[in-house]
Design goal:
This protein has about 110 residues and is mostly beta strands. It is about 0% helix and about 55% strand. Strands 2, 4, 5, 6, 9, 10 and 11 form a seven-stranded mixed β-sheet that branches. About 30% of the residues are buried.
Length: about 110
């Protein structure tokens, strides 16, 4: 499975962005999919995920970010609102198949700055 992430950019604090992760194959049977981010000098962290249909979020983004998927488009989204400078990072999407294999997309840069 190849993943293509897009939608990053420069946004002012308080602004919104929607990230997209398009898969090269059907995501219907993929049980785990998620968005991670990595800021300079920090470890990669899970931001939001969908595990067997249940969404979960890091405490730092709860109430501001929403993860969703569109089976018809084989795409996973991350809607980000009320963005803060500390949300600045490279964002990556990842899926884990039924067989336990992980696939990562190339990252997309999100910069929150005035």
């Amino acid at each position: 499975v190849q993943l293509q992430a897009s939608g990053g950019g420069l946004v002012q604090p308080g602004g919104s962005l929607r990230l997209s992760c398009a898969a090269s194959a059907s995501i219907f049977d993929i049980p785990v999919m998620g968005w991670y981010r990595q800021a300079p000098g920090k470890q990669r962290e899970l931001v939001a995920g969908i595990i067997r249909g249940t969404t979960n979020y890091a405490d730092s983004v709860k109430g501001r970010f929403t993860v969703s998927r569109d089976f018809a488009k084989n795409t996973v989204y991350l809607q980000m609102s009320s963005l803060k400078p500390e949300d600045t990072a490279v964002y990556y999407c990842k899926v884990s198949t039924i067989r336990g294999r992980d696939y990562w997309g190339l990252g997309t840069q999100v910069t929150v700055s005035s």
